[in-house]
Write a structure and sequence with these properties.
Immunoglobulin-like; 5-stranded mixed beta sheet; 2 helices
């Protein structure tokens, strides 16, 4: 066997080691990619038309396995509630939600368990039976899908505690209290520059979720107007508050007026209005400009005065010399006769 030179064998060893490292990293990347599991649920929310007590309703949901490995799922129905200001659903165990809002016992699904190969879609049928004594107003439940292996699973539906599913908004017809109000409409009263963040908080004290629609109209002292659309969100009933954030920016300065114009309700005819004022004024920049202007004025006056003083001294000196010469001439003329 031919022996390689020592230096060449060292190069071969390092090259082989580098190839093995690259291969190991590539293999690890492939394994990591395979470990990420993605599922899509359609739709993420389902608003069922208003039903009478005793009515039935049915529909179809879809779940798609977009990962590279088979996934098995179990579907279950849970009540949920929203208690924060950003609309985060909290799943509840059976019997935990107030009966006036619960709906998990009204819904059934088929199939409840299923396995999907990569890229496969499963249709899930749901069936709703409203009890004859159901309380008028909003009722809420979720159909959630739990994969057998929860690690590194991503979903495009509503994800709650490693589960992905569809949130249901149900309405039972009857005498319903609809009452929402603006609990806060705020903008920083004074800012040097934009953008100005406008916070709107709407609280729902009614028996049914509301989905306000509207806009914020911002106008300046010159009558220029900018419209900021209000995002569409369901607000859970029972005193839950939802935050809406809008941002106003522009190159203008001065006093601005922001007016919220929105409506809500089953007929979308109940008003929500509020007004707030704020100022945009770059006082630091203005102060710098004022100081610069003052400095320019002072320097201009200084150099002007200096030029005037120099010009005056130049005109006074020749005048003095002329006077001396005139005096000398007079003296010479006075003494000339006596010399004769």
């Amino acid at each position: 066997m031919m022996k390689l030179p020592k230096l060449q064998s060292k190069k071969v060893f390092l090259t082989t080691l580098a190839v093995l490292v690259v291969f190991s990293l590539a293999t690890g990347a492939v394994k990591a990619q395979e470990a990420v599991r993605t599922i899509t649920v359609i739709p993420p929310t389902e608003s069922v038309p208003a039903l009478n007590p005793g009515d039935k309703w049915e529909g179809v949901l879809h779940i798609i396995n977009q990962s590279t490995s088979p996934l098995s799922f179990t579907a279950d129905i849970q009540d949920y509630v929203v208690i924060d200001n950003v609309g985060t659903p909290n799943l509840l165990p059976p019997g935990a939600l107030d009966e006036r809002f619960a709906a998990s016992n009204w819904i059934a699904v088929f199939p409840q368990t299923f396995t999907l190969t990569p890229g496969q879609r499963q249709d899930v049928d749901y069936y709703i039976q409203v009890p004859a004594n159901a309380r008028p107003g909003g009722h809420y439940a979720a159909i959630m899908y739990t994969p057998q292996n929860l690690d590194n699973t991503k979903g495009t539906g509503v994800a709650v505690e490693q589960k992905t599913g569809t949130l249901f908004y149900l309405t039972v017809k009857g005498p319903i209290k609809e009452q929402a109000m603006i609990s806060k409409f705020f903008a920083n009263p004074f800012q040097e520059t934009g953008p100005v963040n406008i916070l709107t908080q709407i609280t729902n004290f009614g028996d049914l979720h509301v989905n306000p629609t509207g806009y914020i109209k911002v106008s300046d002292i010159l009558g220029r107007v900018k419209i900021l659309p209000l995002d569409r969100h369901n607000i859970f009933p029972g005193g839950v508050t939802r935050d809406y954030e809008n941002s106003f920016s522009g190159l203008f300065i001065g006093r601005f007026r922001a007016e919220l114009v929105a409506t809500y309700g089953t007929n979308n005819n109940l008003p929500l209005t509020a007004v707030v004022y704020f100022w945009i004024f770059p006082w630091r920049l203005t102060l710098v400009l004022i100081l610069v202007i003052i400095a320019v004025i002072l320097l201009t006056l200084y150099f002007k005065k200096r030029r005037e003083g120099k010009g005056k001294s130049d005109t006074e000196k020749p005048a003095a010399e002329s006077t001396e010469e005139q005096k000398g001439g007079v003296l010479r003329e006075y003494h000339s006769p006596s010399n004769q």
